[in-house]
Amino acid sequence: MTNFPSPAPSPAPRESDELNLRKLVDTLSDHRWFIVSVTGFFLLAGYFNASSQPRIYQADALVQIETRGSNLAFMESLGEPQQGNPTSAELEILQSRMVLGETADRLDLAIQVEPRRLPVVGDFLVHHGVNQQWFESLTPEFIRQWLADSVDDAWSNPYVWAGESLRVARFDVPEGNVGGEHVLRLLDGGEFELLLEEETLLTGSVGETVQNDELGYRLFVSQAEAHPGAEFTLVRTSALSAISELKNRFEIIPRGLESGVYELTLNGADQNQIQPTLDTLTSVFLTQNVQRHSEEAEKQIAFLNEQIPQVSNQLSDAEGMLNDYRAQRDSVDLTFETQNLLTRVVDVENQLGELAMREADLAERYRPSHPNYQTLLRQRGQLEAERDRLNALVSELPETQQEVLRLTRDTQVNQQVYVQLLNQLQEMRLVKAGTVGNVRILDAAMLSPGTIAPRIPLITAVSGLFGALLAMLLVIVRMLLSRSIKTPEQLEELGLPVYATLPNSGEQAGLTERIRPRRAKKAQEVFRGLLAVKKPAEIAVEALRGLRTSLYFAMLESDNNRLMITGASPGVGKSFIAANLAAVCAQAGQKVLLIDADMRRGHLHHAFHGKGIKGLSELLARRISVEEAIRHSELDGLDYVARGSVPPNPSELLMQQSFHDFLDTISQHYDLVIVDTPPILAVTDASVVGKLVGTSLMVVRFDTNPPGEIKAAKRRLESAGVRLKGGILNGVKKPTSSRHGYYGSYLYAYR
User: Fold this and answer.
1) Cα 207 to Cα 115, 172, 277, 293, 476, distances in angstroms
2) Nearest 5°: phi and psi at 152?
3) For the Tyrosine-protein kinase G-rich domain, which residue ranges apply (predicted)?
């Protein structure tokens, strides 16, 4: 017989992972309205915050900084090497206090003007174009009155609205009040007043300079377009603060790799001031750049003017001495060899003369230890050695030739130096007249269209996304941290059989309202009307019919026909279940009595549109008879007993013999007696009632009661000798995926 290998076991499906993911998706879907609400709130908050921020505008300009500008011809002729990176130096100068400070001084940027806005929403309204007339026409009278009380003046006077502005051309304050906040208030007829801490400092008119020499104030308001009573805050900051603020708004962006072209940008909230400020800044930079080069040319011209007369005198003396000697010697001429030697000697002497002038210039700039200075000294040493060698050759010539050579050398050297200095002087004058610097403005400042900040759509979208993520995170964290009962299996693991699973009813919410009883600290929810009567086809009512069937068999083994409905904590829906269970049992032909044994906060009488007085508490106190306590409802076969007046000792009343006798009596006249009791963990009433009934059921609220709470309630009843028959899982919420029923309860609508 052939043995076939058994097939390899197939991997187990990852059902738990799928269920966990499905549960996560279903949980998020169940809380979709919470997520949508939080997202919407963050969207509105983000939009409001972004719209309330100052509008930031930007202007830009384009400049070119050349690596070598109009360098001085004199310096080039002397061969001085260029030191450092002139482009980097110019960029640092552009951001220096020398340039920014002069710009701030020219435009008086130390003056800050801030309008007074309506608290919280003022900037938002102004940025949306809301003016005073529009706001006043739509503002309710009580808000106007509140604003009038809050500012002690006409309700809208202090606040500046859309289309209103103030221009201050000059504002001088004493040294001690620099940085202090002054208030400028506009008056009728173009008048204004300047205040500091409610003290009037100046009064004047728009377009006129007003001053107070005693206090040290001077103010010129060039333009004011606002209603009388509008207030603006004026601050005169220090020069250093104005420069720092301007530097923070100024940015240099390189354009291209080593192109020497840079984009200058300036941003700010004053749309009318940004472009003039950037124009002024570039103009100051260009002017100072030209001035620096012009000053260098002026220094060289002054140096040449000082040297030329000295060289001219030396040339005259040399020519005179040469002519005198020739006259004495009857015009002696130089031989060919001596003429060549003279040429070489003159060349060396000229180079030494140039080095001497370079040394004079370098001595004003550098110390002798500087590398450039040391290079010049080495060159001079080499030329001096060459000159000594040539002089040695000259000394071998005849005496007459030596003297003629010496005098001719001095004449030619001085003549060449003199001509060179004259040429350089002319060049320096041309350089000074045509100095343009090494900076050019390619594009003048221009204001960019629109605003660069705040980016309202982006901020709003990010805020909404953050809100959605936060809401989902809260839902997930709550799901992970929640230990409340969500499935019937969890109750069965606690030893509590589940007799029914009731879904959360949207129709029941229409019957529920919040009331606050007299002398009660908190409001409570009550329901007026029975869901089983008004909406008999509701799925929750169908679940109660299933509970009715289960109870029929469960109560066959009971000692009596009494059923207690209780719960571990308030708000689990035990009164709703007790009342509607009584209704569906009465609809099935049973004669049912519903007793509200919660004499503290019972509200079953509201379901029957009755009153709470003359009920169980009066009956147990023997103030009324049984016939007076029992009331008939609109539903045939259903009677009820209200809670009665709130007694000081509900538990003691339930423990009296009168309550025992009452239950024994009514059990003989009704097919089913349902008793609604207070929560087990709150008071002991349920333990007292449970001893007198044959069947007890505990209502557990879906996603509300934790297992520990159910265990404590069950333990308390069992310690009193009450055995719970089972539980009812109430308020189960339907997940998104309808094919999963009610979280494993397999409860479906069937119509």
Assistant:
1) 19, 16, 22, 41, 65
2) 55, 40
3) 399-478
User: Where do the domains of the chain lie?
Assistant: 26-53+454-481, 111-236, 308-443, 488-732
**Contact yes or no for 546/656 (Cβ under 8 A):** no
Report pLDDT digits (tens) over 496-512: 999 999 998 878 777 88
Query: In 10 A of CB 327, how many CB atoms?
Result: 9
Question: Inter-axis angle of helices 32-52 and 456-481, to 10 degrees?
Answer: 150
Q: Which residue has the tokens 């003369």?
A: 353
User: What interhelical angle do 371-394 and 399-433 show, nearest 10?
Assistant: 150
Q: Which amino acid is at 112?
A: Q
Q: Is the separation of the CB atoms in 210 and 223 below 8 Å?
A: no
**Assigned fold of 488-732:** Rossmann fold (3.40.50)
Summarised one tens digit per residue, pLDDT across range 552-593 is 888 888 889 999 999 999 989 999 999 999 999 999 999 999
Kind and range of the H or E run holding 498: strand 498-503
Closest CA to 58 of 281, 277, 273, 266: 266
Question: How many angstroms separate the CA atoms of 616 and 200, rounded?
Answer: 77
Q: How many residues does the chain have?
A: 751
- 264-298 per-residue burial string, b: 16 or more CB within 10 A, e: under 16: bbbbbeeeebbbebbbbbbbbbbebbbeebbebbe
pLDDT value for 218: 96
Question: Does position 325 have pLDDT exceeding 80, yes or no?
Answer: no
Q: Quick: pLDDT tens for 586-621.
A: 999 999 999 999 998 899 999 999 998 899 999 999
Q: Any bridge partners for residue 59, and if so which?
A: 266, 447
Concatenated DSSP letters for 550-589? HHHHHGGGSSSSEEEEEESSTTSSHHHHHHHHHHHHHHTT
Structure tokens at 29: 């879907």
Report d(CA 527, CA 514) in Å as an integer.
Answer: 9
Please name the helix (run of DSSP H) or strand (run of DSSP E) that holds residue 640, with its range, or none: strand 638-641
Question: So what's the pLDDT on residue 590?
Answer: 94
pLDDT band at 14 (very low <50, low <70, confident <90, very high): very low
Q: How many angstroms separate the Cα of 81 from the Cα of each of 66, 290, 303, 376?
A: 17, 21, 20, 12
Residue type, 664: D
Helix, strand, coil % in the chain, rounded to nearest 5: 50, 20, 30
Helix count and strand count (H, E) for the chain? 26, 22
The set of residues, in sequence order, having a beta carbon less than 8 Å from that of 188 and lying 6+ positions away, is: 228
Please state, in angstroms and rounded to a whole number, the distance separating the CA atoms of residues 684 and 624.
25
Beta bridge partners of 630: 641
Pairwise CA distance, residues 119 & 455, whole Å: 23
pTM of the model: 0.66
Please give the radius of gyration of the chain, using alpha carbons only, rounded to the nearest integer. Answer: 52
With 0-12 / 13-18 / 19 or more C-beta atoms within 10 angstroms meaning exposed / middle / buried, residue 28 is middle
Q: In what helix (H) or strand (E) does residue 673 lie, and over which residues does it extend?
A: strand 672-676
Confidence of residue 749 (pLDDT cuts 50, 70, 90): very low
* The residue type at 219: L
pLDDT tens string 253-273: 999 888 899 999 999 999 999
